[in-house]
Fold this protein.
Amino acid sequence: MKVLITDDHAVLRRGLKQILEDGFGKIQFGEAANAGEAIAQVAKENWDLVVMDITMPGRSGLDALKEIKALKPATRVLVLSVHSEDQFAVRVLKAGASGFLNKDSAPEELVKAVRKVLAGGRYVSASLAEKLAFNLDHPSDQLPHQTLSDREFQVLRMIGSGKTVSEIAEELSLSVKTVSTYRARILEKMKLNTNAELTRYAFENKLVE
């Protein structure tokens, strides 16, 4: 089995490798510290599974996920995050992930998730499955940020973390005008008026660390 571990923390990568080896035996591992390295590894080799953080320096894991699925649609991706599944799970599943797991989960939960994903299934926690079923029956209960596109959501989180429009433009390789347009759309969709209100919303809804 070939597994690519993508996370910007070397200690966490080592820990994940140990858990998976304990659960599955001998595995051929690859490592990537950011989205660009992960995409390069996927372009170069075929992996049975990519285990990937969603929040990394530079390009986001969500961007990497989409590019990985475009490069090799059959690649299974399990997303790990410190953020709650309420905020990210549905978004990454829609983008092509085979599962979502919070980093606070027990090691045996990771093994369970990997086993299900490798078998061709999708992994979400029991509590998230219940929430997804509820949302199907109550679509009007969506939170404002859940109406945003993936790029708008990314810009919202960056504004929430204190970055300026210029800094966001540079990091995402976009023009300042384009980022300003995203910001205007976000404010309109969420019925907010200022960056301060966006930042407060992001913190209250645990969209930023």
Remarks:
- DSSP finds ten helices and five strands in the chain.
- The chain has two domains: 2-136, 144-204.
- The beta strands are 2-6, 28-32, 49-53, 77-81, 99-102.
